[in-house]
Model the fold of this input.
Amino acid sequence: MRWTKLVTSVRGKIEFPAARPTLTWAFAASAVFGGSVAQAKHDDRPRSALTAEQTTAQMTLDEKLSLVDGGGSSDASCVGRTPAISRLGIPALCMGDGPAGVGNGLTKVTIFPAPISLASTWDINLAQDYGAAQAEEQKGKGRNVALLPTVNILRTPLWGRAAETLGEDPVLSGVLGSAITRGVQSQHVIAMPKHFAVNNQETDRFGDAPGWLAVNAVVSERALRELYLPAFDSVVHDGGAQSIMCAYNRVNGDYACDNAHLLGILRGEWKFEGFVTSDWLFAGRSTVRSIKAGEDQLMPGGASPYGLDDYYGSPLRKALRDGAVSVEELNQMVEHILNGMRHVGVASPQKSAADVDVRTAAHVALARRIAADGSVLLKNDNHTLPIGRQDETIAIIGADAGSAQQITEAYGGFVPEDSSHPVTTPVEAITARARGYKIIVAAGTAGVRPLTPIPAARVLSPEGTSGGWTALYFSDAAGKGKILRKQGHVSVPDATSLAPLGARSARWDGIIVPDRSGAYRFSVYGGGAARIRVNGRSVASYEKEEFNEVADGTVMLSAHRSVRISVEYDPTTAIFARRLSVGWAEPSNVRANAIAAAKKANIAVVFVNDIVSEGADRPGLELPGDQDALISAIAHVNPHTVVVLNTVGPVLMPWRHDVAAIVEAWYAGEGNADGITDVMFGDVDPSGRLPETFPQSDAEGRATGVPSAVPGVNLVARYDENLDVGYRYYQRHHIVPEFPFGYGLSYTKFSLSGLRVDGHLAHVTVRNVGPVQGSAVIQLYLGFPQDVGEPPNQLRAFRKIALAPGDQRTVDFKLTPEMFRYWSEKTATWATSAGPYDLSVGFSSEDRPVHAEITP
Done:
């Protein structure tokens, strides 16, 4: 371990009182379902003075079943619903996504930054505001249960839902997740943290049709307890969550919603008294097993359109008649649901609220602030940023700088980009801010969204005659099964043509004769698995996409020399309606125009993006399309090139040493353009810090780097890396990342000194030694004795503070017994070593300049 000269030699011993008791929520019997006692005199919402147990005793069997099996009266606002029971004062439940605003296709809402953007702010108060604002809009749309936050650990940056997480560390995820939960429930909306538990990939989370056997996460008890469960513990005990969503995947052999071990920890050890709801459509896999394990509610209820049974409808009635499930067990399930309603004080949702405009100026401002505060300045050579008057001419380059900017996930619970209000683009925001500057705009690329469809007239039959594609429809996986039909003269590859034939897969073959020589880009877009080949070479492909994915690639072609092109398609894993689109971009001068613009400019800002979403994991960490080549070309002609990344997370940066500045802006919602403009012009100091490690290579981003770990083999993902996830992996194996966890630059500088331990408090002094006001994220790490087998250093607490130039402040960290414990697999319980422990404080997992040795 390399310590800097700021090391503070402090040795001490601290003694703790008995561990804190498990927190529970207790409300008086006079509490009401529809709001607080104080509110009861001022509204006419249904209410009950009965306890959950007393209320349950008065319910009929049908009423009880209506609460545990979703599928109450339909409402456009709800993705899951239970009916009201007015005679007992029980409100209806209307549930909806999402993690970054009111999702599921509703409009007239705020597009908030993705949670990973919020996580990079490291701001607890901002997280609580984020939750409260979302809950206000959810409530305005007629919902009283919000399916958020996602507190699954980002085990690998390849995860398709990385943008939905709060990063790779359980402390950061737990603290921010708890703040979001408190914010949501402060508005009398039930928060439903998800996905319990060990849900860390998209590949095979449903499995393949027709059996839909989900991936099995094989994880040690120690990793489960120390990495994958603590954030859920936090949202229950510190956030007060009153519902939890169990996951699709299996954990050590059992489905998460059937998992007696997982739900036993939640119920037995954590004393959780709220309700457990299955994730939608695929998570509920049984009747008796799930109820015995601790699941309370099946969503969305009814038979699955994908061939899975309805387990809590008629099967539950039968289980009750047969005695496989007792009335007492059903009553307990109902009481858990009523507990959640009562503790949060939910009211019956508004009806027909889907068209209500719930955006407010305060919410828009909050979205912009998070976008700015979450932006992470990764590189800033020679003070390239902020942009100043010396930068008289600014070139804005990239498809992502215009209407194709990536600001949110495409699927799942995220807010659609084509919502009912216009979203400011980076070009518009910079132009508005840069009055008096000259602005040059150039796309430089066709972008990374689906390319223009290949015109039917340009495709010849495989024999070289006119007539378009020839289609082959197979009974099995692409190109391997019995040919059910061969069809010529097909104008375009059509995914819907498979169903009438009973085909599982198809291949379309044709010939294209290029008009000119150069680089041709091809794209394929749709659900399931697809691949496009040119002269037998795979150019673009994706596999096991649940929703719709776009993949593209580039190949050099010569004018007037025919090439064979084929498209293979297998929709087996597709969840949405089958869709397939094949596109291309012929050689053009679009990049040359961008290079010319960069040559004329004092500073060139290149906006690039990826498109990652729920439904598929990333195949690698490369920027998609031709964006790497674009950045390199611009950097070659302009030494003051700034790269802005609107990405789900880390990307490989082969051009890192050629550009002057790099900013990670994430999927920053509708405030993306204004927020990044605030940072680039210095109106806001960049205070974002990485909530995940950025690797130098693709292999480093794949957990242990072997397929058995990510995404798994034969539906088994082995978590053999054990505790070595994120920065723990890099430190254990002495690997230098591209950018470490917790890292981020500012327009000012900070110093740390004087670390000391006084009883149960650690104190450190932070000073702004730079020229402007800024915010520092002070991070406390703990190093365990070597014989314990823990990773070298682990985040245990953090504080974000703002300081003016020259100001200093003493930051206090409370030291608790939980910080020093580890899970002993030998005794199957929590244990604490005699020490000594290394306590360090710094600005990232790799920059911890002050240390103290302590013994608990």
In short: The domain at 365-449+590-712 is CATH 3.40.50.1700 (Rossmann fold). Residues 1-10, 18-47 have pLDDT under 50 and may be disordered. DSSP finds 18 helices and 34 strands in the chain.
